[in-house]
Each structure stands twice: as C-alpha cells, then as structure tokens.
Amino acid sequence: MSSEAVRIPFDGRQIEIEYQWLRPERVRRPLAVFLHEGLGSVSMWRDFPRKLCEAGDFRGLVFSRYGYGGSTPRPHDEKWGVDFMHRQAREALPALFAALDIGPGRRHGKPWLLGHSDGGSIALIHAASFPDAVDGVTVLAPHIVVEDLSVRSIAVTRETYLTTDLRARLARHHHDVDSAFWGWNDIWLDPAFRAFDLRPLLDNLRCPVLAVQGEEDEYGTMAQIEGIHRYAPQTVLLKLARCGHSPHRDQAGALTAATVAFINTHTSILK
Q: In this protein, which residues make up the domain named AB hydrolase-1 (predicted)?
C-alpha cells in the first residue's frame, strides 16, 4: 500500500508527515493509530497494523513521525531536547489529528493509540495531556523513566550502526537514515536525558490502558509497565515470555488477541 503525505505546522514551520489509512471504510469501528518506535516508520511496522486491524475489524492509521520514514527529515544540525517526546505528543500529534479530521466531534472520532517504545511514551503523554481526546491506549515496551539497561543497549546500538550493515538495513525505511538514527541516538545518550520522567503525568490518565512488556526486553524492565499501573490503576498489564523489545514481532499472536479483546471491551464506537 502506498503512503500519502499531509502538511502540518510544527516548530514554526510546515512539515510533511507520511501516513497510510487502513480499512477506512469501516466507519463504525474503532480507529487504531500506530505510533512507532525510536527508529521506526510506516514501513518498519511491516504487516502488523494491517493484521491487527483485520483481526479486530478496526480502522487504522499508520504514520512516520517528523524525522522518520518518508516524513520531513530532521536537519542534521538540529538537536532534540529532553522534551522531544512531549513535543510530539502535545504539538505534532494534535496537528496531525486536526489535519486528518481525527478526534472528538470530528469525522473519524476518538482514536485508540497503539504505541511502541518511544511511540508508547508519546501515546501516554498525549492521553495524559488530553484525557478526553482518546478512547484508550495500548503501549508496547514504553519508557516512563530512563533505565541504565536502556542506555547501555542504546550505546551498543550506536556501535552496531557504525560497524555493521545496520545503517544499510535501516536506510530501506527512511529517506534520510542518518537524520533518523542520530536524532534518536544522540538524545538518548545525552546525560541530560536522564531527567526524562513521565511519572508526574501518569495519574492524569483517565482512559483504559493496556501495557505490554516482554520478559527478555533488552531496552527496559517490568518496572516500566508496573510504574504505569502504580499511577494509573486501571492499567491492565500483559507480560510476555519469550519476548524482547518488539512484542508485535516476537509474540504477534498473543499481542493481537489481547489488544483486540481490550479495544472491543472498552471502545466507545459500536459495531
């Protein structure tokens, strides 16, 4: 399926965001919006969004954030701050939803956010900042604080990018692979990023939350999703065995079944 592009205002200028609709004709079914990981894009999701939407009879929206995929690349001299995920959640995502007519009282209605890794953190920030704007959230391996394990693994990824074919493999999914990689890697390895902490926001979550973590995740521990539950007790935890940082690849069947059941239980849009 080919991607489209929409222009939105961000950081005082117009940028292009790559996106794809999935099954848009299912107007009476929930809309799942997929927010990718720190090195992700529309194409990096592969066929998981389509299969999930087919399994749940959902509509879907997949998009590449600023700096990723086919969206406007980050200028190489632009350094992201500690608040880069907050800005995506509070500025870029609302602008995208406005451009695509998503949200309460709009054509496509309230979305259900499904975010992976950094995308999961962005989903949590958005839902906590705009409690009435979403139906619910599913987060896969989200980050609510910076753990030593995360920093160590991201430092290893940096060396892998410099010394193996990782750059070439990622280049298949990004128009400017160095923009995508260094934007993410530089801020995560900046000592200032240790201040990143979503815990003060989490008790503002009002929607249903499904939080998923793999037992073998090399980028985060169970403390991440357990922390969400501590501040937002409505959160349902799903801990997956034989699963690393990408539950949608390592345990796609279990994740799909759990997500479909959770969305169908809590959605405000009826069949």
A: 33-257
Asked whether 197 and 144 are in contact (CB, 8 A), the reply is yes
For the chain, the structural domain boundaries read: 4-266
**CATH T-level assignment (fold) for domain 4-266:** Rossmann fold (3.40.50)
Tell me the per-residue pLDDT of 107-133, one tens digit each, with 9 for 90 and over.
Answer: 999 999 999 999 999 999 999 999 999
CA distance 64 to 44: 9
Q: Is the pTM of this model over 0.85?
A: yes
| Backbone phi, psi, residue 153, to 5° | -70, -35
Q: How many other C-beta atoms are found inside a 10 Å radius of the C-beta of residue 186?
A: 13
CA distance 244 to 48: 16
The Cα–Cα gap between 235 and 233 comes to 5
Q: How far apart are CA 237 and CA 154, in angstroms?
A: 25
Residue type (1 letter), 199: R
Q: What's the rounded Cα separation, in Å, for the pair 20 and 225?
A: 29
pLDDT over 70, % of the chain? 98
How many other CB atoms sit within 10 Å of the CB of residue 79?
13
User: What are the beta bridge partners of residue 10?
Assistant: 13
